[in-house]
Design brief:
By secondary structure, this protein is mostly helical. It is 77% helix and 0% strand. It has two domains: 44-129; 132-167, no CATH class. It contains five helices and no strands. The longest helix is centred in the middle third of the chain and has 37 residues, at 44-80. Residues 25-38 have low confidence and may be disordered.
Length: 167
């Protein structure tokens, strides 16, 4: 009987040792992840790179808004009838109005994006660029490369989208 008890004790000790080793490994991984994430802020060079990217994107948006404005003006001139060589068929009018609505939609989308880029430039001036507005953590460089006007880190943005969807 005592031999069985020794085996059980050894088995329990091995299990506890394995559990402790796993816990230490998890703690070490979590510490490593935290140290990677605990970068305090981006360097001036990195911020300048983001600023260049934002300014280039802003320039592209302004050109796109100019193109949309030209398209809206062209549709308005056609509707005046000065360039119209065909009758006012209802289907043609419907198509014209649909094109006009589509252009207004694109213009409003681009306008919102332009506003967010301007806000990002303002955060750069204040020295607040790259920090999540909800939790205050540093937004990952990968996220800012893809969305230079990002205000929220991935976690906070996901939470916001879940709330908007009602989950």
């Amino acid at each position: 009987m005592p031999a069985k008890n020794k085996k059980k004790t050894k088995a329990k000790t091995k299990t506890k040792t394995k559990t402790k080793a796993k816990t230490k490994a998890k703690a070490k991984t979590m510490t490593t992840n935290k140290t990677k994430k605990q970068k305090h802020k981006y360097t001036k060079t990195e911020v300048e790179q983001f600023k260049k990217k934002i300014l280039a994107e802003r320039e592209r948006i302004l050109k796109e808004l100019g193109r949309i404005e030209e398209s809206i003006n062209a549709v308005a001139e056609d509707q005046d009838g000065s360039n119209q060589s065909y009758s006012n068929h209802l289907a043609d009018l419907g198509t014209d109005y649909m094109e006009k609505e589509k252009n207004f939609y694109y213009a409003s989308q681009e306008g919102r994006y332009l506003r967010s880029l301007d806000e990002a430039l303002e955060r750069i001036k204040r020295g607040e660029y790259g920090f999540c507005l909800d939790c205050g953590d540093l937004i990952s460089k990968k996220r800012l490369d893809v969305v230079p006007s990002a205000k929220l880190c991935i976690t906070c943005k996901s939470n916001q989208e879940k709330q908007e969807r009602g989950r």
